[in-house]
Design goal:
The complex is a heterotrimer of chains A (543), B (304) and C (326). Chain A has 543 residues and is an alpha/beta fold. Chain A is built from 22 helices and 20 strands. In chain C, helix 1 (3-28) packs antiparallel against helix 14, helix 5 packs across helix 12 and helix 12 packs antiparallel against helix 14 (290-317). Classes of the chains: A alpha/beta (543), B mainly alpha (304), C mainly alpha (326).
Chain lengths: 543, 304, 326
């Protein structure tokens, strides 16, 4: 074994306990990591990447057991090492950065005490040294007021700051290896860039080796020297980052950026099916929308883009009548819609349908596919008996499923199939407008591509209009004709896709677009540098 | 799962797809997988129900037939002997099954009707209706239920209808809490919102969208509530303020025969006589708990 | 004002409000009495005059609101009214003030409850924490099986089994816990052994299971996993990471079970003929002596509310989010 190899995992097999028996969830994976190298571990939900990452520390969560293989960390096999030996490595030589910093910090202790805790308990530094060092780490992580921020409690700082503090915590003992477990997944895209840049810088500065776990290829392209793709607990392929991006070998790897490959020329129209005019809305006394005006062109796709808290979902609630606006109107085909759901006629309800993000919660788990799709057919179109069945079959064919699905319950469908059934349910009403609220963000990439293509085909065939609410710029690129950018309850700009995606940008649009990681491994450095020059960059939604 | 096709097709899409089975097949498979404790529970409950339903056919003597000698020993025509005024204890055990379980069952049903009804109304309407009912229930629950029951019994007397009404009222507060919590979780689901957006009426939303989804926890709660009501009635009867003589009931039977325990040194059979009705109560409670535990684990997927 | 103080005051106000509503409910119970209850109390031969005098004494000629405030005012001065028993149809009144009836018995009940709590609380917490720490071990499974069975048993079954084993078959303890004011302390303890043991068994079963569940829930927090992944020793994980967050759940468990103890005491006092408030209440229910029933109900409900209040306040003052506001 060569000297500069830090971690070598050989033929790892890991079992997980579910449905009252043990199943293999990692099926013989090898992994090598050199000193100072960053390995990206990428895969979709259920690929076993977190399990594998934790196994590198010799750790298995409850309900997980490391069954076979060897884990050589710097000459020591963690598979056979005693609990005490593993304890002396963890926190000192191998550190962990969790996905949710808010949950992983103990609410009862100050940040600094938690930052230096491992360093002290392993006797790496004295208390005073460690505290001084923590402050310099906070500074290195670009935390505001590094001298004092450590004396705060976890609930007193924002999510992005906590995530940086956790990286500082992992760095405190200057470990040889850090496991980053989806550390930015819970953050907004504009916050994510800064956290990524700070992490990358810290890892480079101390020449720390890292395993970076994520489902986002563009993120891993920024962080990793080498990328390993996992699927169903098996390795799909592994290559240098540059090589992987330019020349993926396996079709599955290509499918990971499937959504980015969809292209659609933008078209627009002056015929507006729906117009939102000067709408202001509030939840109770908390204002969420300020003077929002949006026009939706008929038969086209309007993408509403923004981060969490931008008001994009609230806009959908105003359109559907779930949240009557305090001021302003929603015009449908030129005529104002009653503000509240109760005031709308069946016909008005039928014209606007909605598809949700989580197909799981959008389908009644006790209704079969037949009932789910059949109900709007009965309810709006007044069909009965075999006419309903026939219509449901037609709709199933439209969403590329067949009659064998008729009597299934949602629990017997996969995520993508559920979302298709939800699309069929919306189509069953024969609507003019369908509001799609983050409909693909809970799905794996391949499935996302399928759903987006289906939606585009349906639009071509039926001429239906989409209002597509999303935070994902890649999805916007793929399917939109027009784009509305929202920020803090206001519309920043609306226009045809090609114009919005080209400079000059309003300041927020630029921030948003420049925050979206691209496949170019050099992107992060440029983006982070540009960010420092901008004024509203630092955690816009600082809670 | 490993042999996923290279080309994508919605129909072949893999996921956590369960095999399709009819309801009967599923139930039977679940039953076969049930742990021994659950089987034990189901067998015990079936026996109790059988005895309760056919009480008058099974009992050798009448419920209030006191034509025998007092405190006769076990055997000799009286399996468990006779009580202090010469009634056959075995027969009274059988009638007691019918009376105690029947009253507990009626009470639980009433509690669910009242508590569940109000809870659904509160969960759907929310706003002030919910606030008023919930605060009222909070106050009622601030008085321990046995104490509350004792107080109300002192006012209304210990007739069986009063007993049923009072305990049902007190228990309906617990039912309300649970049903409301469970219903609240369902009401915020997007499929309920989707139904409302479709323009469905309140009746449909309640019947078709909410009710089917709150049934499993409510069924489990029914079991737990039943055993709780059963214990409360037994305790009240034991205290002498519950089911009144000559109606046979396990709680008061314990009380009536309690003094026999002093003679355990001389005749162990006599000594354990008061423990028989008490044991019958405990056995049923254990059985119900076993079944509910298993049912909850099945329906919620909880492993702990 | 510090948010903790505000929250605590809010909680106290809520507690007082609950107490107020509870007192209204308990007071108004007398309103539901059938019209002829005075006859039932005084006997069928009571003259109209005695009945009228009795009604006047109860204030039944006054509006309910006035009577409520009279009642609550008297209560504040320690006057719980006069018992119904001891009155005769002739008008001769040998009834006693409720305070005299309840006072000494309350002391006895508190004695039994404290004696139980002192043993049960530490025992249950220790068992619960151990079972949670060694989850899945033989010890854990054994304790679980035993407590599950105990929980399903009515209190009187536990009591009679103990009597059978420890008083009847092996005469170690007395089966009747009859004590008087003159009974010396250790003699009291000896006589209370069986009732206290019964209560302990029942309470420990509940409390231990709840403690176990609360601790397991706590140990499943991501910050506990994080502490383990920092390489801290198991001892340190428990002491510095789990314990500071455990006060609230543990306080809730203890309060819930002490409140349960308050109720359990009624049945146990009757089994062992122990002269406490519980037995007094049951006797009063049988004889429909409403003032005594009301007083007992108020005592039990009050204790219950106060215990829950204390638990809530402990949760509030140990909550780091409130201790260290933004």
């Amino acid at each position: 074994m060569s000297d500069d190899i830090l971690l070598h995992m050989k033929n790892i097999v890991i079992d997980g306990f579910s449905d009252e028996s043990w199943h293999e969830i990692i099926k013989g994976v090898d992994l090598t990591l050199k000193r100072g190298e960053v390995l990206g571990l990428i895969g979709e939900s259920g690929a076993g990447k977190s399990t594998l990452g934790l196994a590198a520390m010799g750790y298995g969560r409850p309900g997980i057991r490391l069954t076979a293989g060897e884990i050589w960390f710097d000459g020591q096999d963690l598979m056979t090492a005693s609990e005490a030996d593993k304890q002396s490595l963890r926190g000192a030589r191998i550190a962990y950065v969790a996905q949710s910093a808010a949950a992983a910090f103990n609410p009862a202790h100050r940040l600094i005490d938690q930052t230096i805790e491992a360093t002290l308990s392993h006797g790496v530094k004295t208390s005073a040294e460690a505290a001084e060092d923590a402050k310099s780490l906070y500074a290195a992580m670009d935390l505001p007021d590094p001298e004092n921020i450590g004396f705060r409690y976890p609930h007193q700082v924002s999510g992005g700051q906590l995530q940086r503090a956790m990286t500082a915590m992992a760095m405190s003992a200057r470990p040889d290896l850090i496991i980053f477990d989806e550390p930015t997944t819970a953050l907004d895209v504009t916050t994510q860039v800064n956290v990524l840049a700070a992490m990358r810088e810290a890892v480079d500065r101390f020449n720390t080796a890292a395993i970076y776990i994520t489902h986002d290829l563009a993120v891993v392209a920024q962080m990793a020297d080498r990328i390993k793709v996992l699927r169903y607990g098996e390795e799909v392929e592994e290559a240098e980052t540059q090589e992987m991006l330019s020349n993926p070998k396996h079709p599955y790897t290509k499918s990971l950026w499937a959504v980015r490959s969809i292209e659609k020329p933008a078209e627009t129209s002056d015929d507006y099916v729906l117009e939102i005019k000067n709408v202001t809305a509030a939840y109770g006394s908390v204002p969420v929308l300020h003077d929002v005006s949006i026009a939706v062109p008929r038969g086209k796709t309007l993408a509403v883009v923004g981060e969490s808290g931008s008001g994009k979902s609230t806009t959908a609630r105003v359109i559907t009548g779930l949240l009557p606006p305090t001021e302003g109107d929603v015009l449908f085909n030129g005529a104002p819609l009653p503000a509240a759901l109760k005031g709308r006629s069946k016909d008005q309800l039928q014209r606007i349908q909605m598809i949700y993000q989580m197909a799981d919660t959008a389908m009644n788990p006790r209704h079969t596919v037949r009932e789910t799709i059949g109900r709007p057919v009965e309810f709006y179109l007044g069909l009965r008996g075999s006419a309903v069945d026939q219509r449901v079959s037609e709709l199933l064919a439209m969403i590329e499923l067949d009659d064998s699905f008729l009597d299934r319950l949602p629990g017997e469908l996969s995520g993508g199939q559920k979302q298709r059934v939800c699309i069929a349910r919306a189509l069953a009403a024969e609507p003019e407008v369908i509001i799609c609220d983050e409909v693909t963000s809970a799905l794996d990439q391949v499935v996302q591509e399928g759903i987006l293509k289906l939606l585009m085909k349906l639009q071509r065939d039926l001429g239906v209009t989409y209002i597509f609410i999303t935070h994902d710029i890649a999805t916007v690129q793929a399917i939109s004709d027009e784009i509305v950018v929202m920020w803090m309850g206001k519309v920043v700009e609306q226009g045809i896709k090609d114009e919005i995606m080209q400079p000059p940008y309003p300041e927020y649009t630029e921030l948003l677009l420049s925050s979206v990681p691209t496949m170019d491994p050099g992107w992060l450095k440029g983006a982070a540098a540009a960010r420092k020059a901008m004024s509203i960059a630092e955690e816009t939604g600082k809670a | 799962m490993t042999n996923a096709p290279e080309t994508y097709s919605a129909k072949d899409e893999v996921g956590q797809v369960r095999a399709r089975r009819t309801r009967w097949e599923r139930t039977w498979i679940e039953l076969k997988k049930a742990p021994p404790t659950a089987w034990f529970g189901m067998v015990v409950i079936s026996c109790y129900v059988f005895v309760a339903v056919f009480a008058s056919a099974l009992a050798p003597y009448g419920e209030a037939d006191s034509s025998f000698g007092a405190y006769l020993p076990w055997g000799d025509g009286h399996v468990f002997g006779t009580d202090q005024i010469g009634r056959d204890i075995f027969s009274r055990m059988i009638y007691g099954a019918r009376n105690t379980m029947g009253i507990a069952f009626a009470t639980t049903c009433l509690a669910f009707l009242v508590g569940g009804g109000f809870a659904l109304a509160a969960a759907i309407s929310r706003g002030w209706v919910d606030q008023v009912i919930s605060r009222f229930v909070d106050v009622l629950m601030a008085i321990p239920s046995l104490i509350f029951a004792l107080m109300l019994l002192s006012i209304f007397g210990s007739s069986i209808p009063a007993l049923i009404m009072i305990i049902a009222l007190l228990d309906s507060t617990r039912v309300f809490r649970l049903t409301r919590a469970v219903a609240m979780n369902v009401v915020v689901m997007e499929y309920v919102e989707a139904a409302r957006l479709r323009g469905e009426g309140l009746g449909w939303v309640m019947r078709r969208e909410i009710l089917p989804n709150i049934m499993p926890p409510l069924v489990a709660e029914f079991g737990l509530r039943f055993s709780f009501v059963f214990l409360t009635i037994a305790a009240l009867s034991f205290l002498g303020v519950g089911i009144q003589p000559p109606t046979a009931d396990w709680g008061s039977m314990v009380r009536d025969n309690a003094s026999l325990i002093q003679f355990a040194q001389y005749d162990w059979k006599a000594g354990v006589t008061p423990l028989i009705p008490a044991g019958a109560i405990a056995l049923l409670t254990v059985a119900v708990n076993f079944v509910v535990d298993w049912f909850l684990m099945k329906t919620s997927g909880l492993k702990e | 004002m510090h948010p903790i103080l505000t929250t605590v005051l809010q909680r106290l106000a809520l507690g007082l409000l609950t107490l107020f509503f509870v007192s209204v409910i308990i007071f108004s119970s007398i309103e539901f009495l059938p019209g002829d209850f005075t006859q039932a109390v005084l006997g069928q031969t009571a003259t109209e005059e005695t009945v009228a005098a009795f009604r006047r004494e109860l204030g039944l000629d006054q509006p309910a609101i006035v009577r409520y405030f009279d009642w609550i005012g008297a209560l504040a001065q320690g006057d719980l009214g006069t018992s119904f028993s001891g009155r005769a149809s002739s008008g001769v009144d040998r009834s006693r003030p409720v305070v005299d009836l309840v006072g000494p018995r309350l002391e006895n009940t508190l004695f039994l409850a404290s004696m139980t709590a002192i043993v049960a609380v530490p025992l249950a917490l220790t068992l619960g924490i151990l079972a949670a720490l060694y989850r899945g071990s033989i010890f854990d499974r054994m304790v679980n099986a035993v407590t599950l069975t105990t929980i399903a048993m009515p209190e009187f079954l536990v009591a009679y089994i103990l009597i059978l084993l420890l008083a009847s078959l092996n005469p170690i303890f007395p089966s009747l816990a009859n004590i008087t004011e003159d009974t010396p302390f250790w003699e009291r303890v000896y006589r209370c052994a069986l009732p206290s043991m019964t209560l302990t068994l029942v309470i420990v079963a509940h409390m231990m299971r709840m403690t176990r569940a609360a601790i397991i829930n706590l140990l499943a927090s991501p910050y506990i996993e994080m502490a383990r992944l920092k390489g801290l020793s198991p001892r340190k994980v428990i002491l510095t990471h789990a314990l500071p967050n455990a006060w609230a759940p543990i306080a809730n468990v203890v309060a819930f079970n002490l409140a349960y103890l308050v109720v359990g005491v009624v049945v146990v006092e009757v089994v062992f003929v122990y002269p406490g408030v519980g037995q007094l209440m049951v006797d009063a229910v049988t004889t429909r002596d409403i003032p005594v029933v009301q007083a007992c109900a108020l005592i039990f409900a009050g204790t219950y509310i106060v215990l829950n209040l204390i638990a809530d306040i402990i949760s509030i003052v140990t909550n780091p989010r409130l201790l260290h506001p933004r």
